[in-house]
Specification:
Number of domains: 2
Strand content: 15-25%
Largest sheet: 4 strands, mixed
CATH topology of the largest domain: 60s Ribosomal Protein L30, Chain: A
Oligomer: single chain
Order of helices and strands: HEEEEEHHEHHEHEE
Shape: elongated
């Protein structure tokens, strides 16, 4: 909800600029990955920063310094910011598809996920799909980059065959970089032989 926090901050600043008489309240929420950044509210009279989920800053008017107030409960946040929360896009759906060693052939379990991915694309009316290939560290770096690319292209082709629009799918590959499980060179690791599909 990183974007939501920013939205609430900007909305409050706009209200201050136009001299809105009612108090403005800013609340900090974690982003979709559960990480929490911070919000700093500044005007000519002072500034306040919050960095913990649920913490709030209130600004009564443009000529009064921002002040921190007690943290809001989840129930209060949902009640107070229900319209902004409803406007926040849903988090992406992420699928991990695994492959047999040294090939672009999906495991049976991974192949069974294809209908779920296609359903997610259809239900979300997605126009933004990422297909990212990976490999383990068995073999040379160049070989693994080519293999991870082939794996990603294979998954893209399967999605297109299932009805997805090829124009909405971005294919990239990382080779043996960005492993789920760090290993020494030339070590096979089944969880690193994967394609990540992100449906937004």
């Amino acid at each position: 909800m990183k974007h939501l926090a920013a939205f609430l901050l900007y909305a409050g600043l706009i209200a201050l600029l136009f001299g809105c008489a009612s108090p403005n309240v800013f609340v900090l929420l974690p982003d979709q990955d559960g990480q929490t950044g911070s919000i700093e509210v500044i005007n000519t009279k002072g500034s306040q920063t919050i960095a913990r989920p649920g913490e709030t800053i209130a600004v009564a008017s443009a000529d009064r310094a921002p002040k921190t107030v007690s943290a809001m409960s989840e129930k209060e946040i949902k009640r107070t910011f229900k319209d902004a929360l409803a406007a926040e896009p849903s988090p992406p759906e992420i699928f991990l598809l695994y492959f047999h060693s040294g090939t672009s052939r999906l495991t049976d379990q991974a192949a069974g996920l294809l209908p779920d991915i296609l359903a997610a694309i259809k239900n979300r009316k997605s126009l933004d799909i990422s297909v990212i290939g990976h490999s383990d560290r068995a073999g040379s770096r160049d070989y693994n980059l080519a293999l991870s690319t082939k794996r990603a292209e294979q998954v893209r082709d399967l999605l297109v065959a299932g009805g997805a629009d090829a124009q909405t799918i971005a294919v990239t590959s990382h080779g043996e970089g960005n492993p789920l499980i760090p290993t020494a060179d030339d070590v096979e690791e089944p969880r690193n032989r994967r394609v990540e599909v992100v449906v937004r």
